[in-house]
Amino acid sequence: MSRSYDKTHEITALYEISKLLGSSLNLKVNLRGVMRVLAEYLDMKRGTVALRSAGEVSIIAAHGMSEEEIKRGRYKLGEGIIGRVAKHGSPIVIPNIGDEPLFLNKTGSRKTIKKENVAFLCVPIKFKNEVLGVLSVDRLFGSKAVSFEEDLRLLKIIASLIAQYVRIHMEIEREREAFLEEKENLKSQLKGKYRVENIIGQSDSMQEVFESVHRVAPSKANVLLRGESGTGKELVAKAIHYMSARAKGPFIKFNCASIPEGLLESELFGHEKGSFTGATAMRKGRFELANGGTVFLDEIGDLPLTLQPKILRVLQEKEFERVGGEKTIKVDVRLIAATSRNLEELVSSGKFREDLYYRLNVVPLFLPSLRERKGDISLLSEYFIKKYNAENNKSVMITPDVMNVFMNYDWPGNVRELENTIERLVVMARGKNITTSDLPINIREQSMRARYSVQIKDALPSTIEDIEKARISGALQRTGWIQAKAAKSLGITPRQIGYKIKKYNIQETSGSK
Ligand SMILES: Nc1ncnc2c1ncn2[C@@H]1O[C@H](COP(=O)(O)OP(=O)(O)O)[C@@H](O)[C@H]1O
Ligand SMILES: [Mg+2]
Description:
- The chain is an alpha/beta fold.
- It folds into 4 domains: 7-174, Beta-Lactamase, CATH 3.30.450.40; 204-366, Rossmann fold (3-Layer(aba) Sandwich); 370-452, Helicase, Ruva Protein, domain 3 (Orthogonal Bundle), CATH 1.10.8.60; 464-510, Orthogonal Bundle (Arc Repressor Mutant, subunit A), CATH 1.10.10.
- 45% of the residues lie in helices and 16% in strands.
- It is built from 19 helices and 17 strands.
- The chain has helices at residues 7-21, 27-42, 67-72, 80-88, 149-190, 204-216, 233-242, 261-269, 286-289, 308-317, 343-348, 354-360, 377-392, 400-408, 414-428, 441-452, 464-478, 483-490, 494-503; strands spanning 46-53, 56-63, 74-76, 92-94, 118-127, 130-140, 223-226, 251-255, 270-271, 283-284, 294-298, 319-321, 328-330, 334-339, 363-366, 397-398, 433-434.
- The strands form 5 sheets. A 6-stranded antiparallel sheet has the order 3-2-1-6-5-4. A 5-stranded parallel sheet has the order 8-11-14-7-15. A two-stranded antiparallel ribbon has the order 9-10.
- A hairpin with a 2-residue loop joins strand 5 (118-127) and strand 6.
- Helix 1 packs antiparallel against helix 2 (27-42) and helix 17 (464-478) crosses helix 18 (483-490).
- The longest helix is centred in the N-terminal third of the chain and has 42 residues, at 149-190.
- It is elongated and about 115 Å long.
- It starts with 6 loop residues before the first helix and ends in a 10-residue tail after the last helix.
- Residues 454-461 have low confidence and may be disordered.
- The structure holds adenosine-5'-diphosphate and magnesium ion (MG).
């Protein structure tokens, strides 16, 4: 092979290389292409591009080496020749690697040509003064002693092309990573690890609920949902049903507290024609209607003792008879029960059967009250505002002050109360913004008390009537029970004060409340 390059060859090679580097952003593919061009045009047998990262240089593209060999090509800064070039940033030429003790042959790629005359040329890939990596090339030569000036000059040019490319690539990668990280952050902010459709909650306690929902839904287990009214028990029951294998089957809801005891049995289990006055036709009950699906029994704590054995039997044997019927009916249902009552207390006071309790309580799931997860209030508020804006074709917003009030309020009615409050606010809103003055008085009052003081909390009245009553008694006391004077100090008429005194039954002896 000729020792001095054909200039046209060299220019063609450089042209090919710059074209290649500009063709895409796939670092490995492009650099591999560069090495191929080098081999093809310039008669170099083997070449590598190694890049620096955190105290190391590793080969990321090569020509004439296997994937295995490439993987082994990692060097600490200063280690071997590649490591030295990476560390010091100046080229090294080994005229004959067979004679060089520094040569590590770490990749093992040169076993077969050990006896040949191989020169190793290694130049830094530098951008300004920063060493980004190392370009190295194996060159075979005959028995003649040769100079590598020409080779080095060309390799330096190529290394600088690679440097620019790698630099741009790093920049883009960095931006992409920042973007992805940002996206991930946003994602994890918007939703926790677990998601259940239509149920909002990022707090740890709700995340636990979601995790349980995911775990229990596909199973056959009956579930008992516990939690105050308005915490989302029904929502969770539906989610479990629609995430289960029964999703295509019916979801039948029944509230045990909704109808008189005498009608419960027929509602739940159905009745035969003529079984009682008014039973003019056979009617299926909830359990029969739910066959192949899920029955959701809300307020199970209100289930009368007389009916409890029948429910137990459905749970255990999956069978029952209709009211007034002989025939045993078999059903395949999953039961999800819910209660806001203290079942354990009901059991110990004999109002709820212990065996049924244990049967229901296999998988209990506790829904936290809203005041136990105040962190979710803003997320829920946004969700409901969006929902009711869409429903009412509006685009109202709530001010940060309102959010503050929401955060300080106790929400005894939980998510239901929050949802209803927001729906009302959106429907009633006249302008674009909902402000604190639009809020119901009880929410404003209670929130204010919570915010300003814990001590005076108990001293302060809680309803508008209480406030009025306290103000009137106070004025009467101050004026020695002269009604006209008291009325004047309050800015109302004597007639009005007389009426209020009667209404609130304020008496001289009762003093100020
Ligand atoms: N985590 C939640 N995310 C979104 N909406 C909720 C959530 N919890 C409750 N709701 C809504 O609040 C209302 C009351 O929920 P519900 O499931 O009926 O409560 P419960 O059965 O515990 O009384 C429903 O309109 C429901 O959609
Ligand atoms: Mg409910």
